[in-house]
Amino acid sequence: MSASTKRSSQDARLEAVFGTPVGELYAQAAAGVAPPAVSRALELRSFLALTEEQVARVRDRVYAAMAPEVDMNELSAAQLRWDSQWMDAALSARGEYLTALGELFTSMPAAGSTAHRPAKLDQPGLAAHPVPRPAPAALPAQSATRGR
Q1: Whole-number pLDDT of residue 85
Q2: How many other CB atoms are there within 10 angstroms of residue 1's CB atom?
Q3: Rounded to an integer, what distance in angstroms lies between the CA atom of residue 9 and that of residue 144?
Q4: Separation CA 94–CA 92 (nearest Å)
Q5: Distance spanning both ends of the chain, measured CA to CA
Q6: Helix 36-65 and helix 22-31: axis angle, to 10°?
Q7: What gap in Å lies between CA 33 and CA 40, rounded to an integer?
Q8: CA 78 to CA 57: how far, in whole Å?
Q9: Which residues 6+ apart lie within 8 Å of 10 measured at CB?
């Protein structure tokens, strides 16, 4: 299953920010007509969806191992330590992806803003004839050094 078809915890937020269902956003990106912010958000969303799937798998594995019907003689502290490390890594990655998505959303221009237009610079144009500059005066230390 592709990451683009997996659900993520941020799908509703993406749809609210871009005003389009996630599936359509992926179609725009595949057609090459999506703005750069959409492409970046979808890339992060794909990573997030995969990471959230990892979190769910480890959670389910731990729940299954700790189920009341499981014989206590089958419990493995080593396996639970492994699962704890995997869960720590997956939750850490999930947090980083959520942070990156949040930063992307806050850095995007507001809908209907003029931030996507090139800024006008209030700088005077270059003069057709450069203004001559006076030659720099020689420093006394330089002329004394040359005489030695």
Answers
A1: 97
A2: 7
A3: 75
A4: 5
A5: 82
A6: 130
A7: 13
A8: 18
A9: 45, 48, 98, 101
CB atoms under 10 Å from CB of 87, counted, come to 17
List per-residue pLDDT tens for the chain, 148 residues long.
Answer: 688 889 999 999 999 999 999 999 999 999 999 999 999 999 999 999 999 999 999 999 999 999 999 999 999 999 999 999 999 999 999 999 999 999 999 998 755 554 444 444 344 444 444 445 555 555 555 555 555 4
> Half-sphere exposure of residue 100, counting CA atoms within 13 Å on the CB side?
16
Q: Of 58, 47, 40, 35, which is closest to residue 4 (Cα–Cα)?
A: 47
Q: Which residue has the tokens 């299953």?
A: 1
Q: Which one-letter amino acid corresponds to residue 90?
A: A
* Gap between the Cα atoms of 85 and 115, Å rounded: 44
R_g of the chain, CA atoms, integer Å: 30
- pLDDT confidence of residue 31: 96
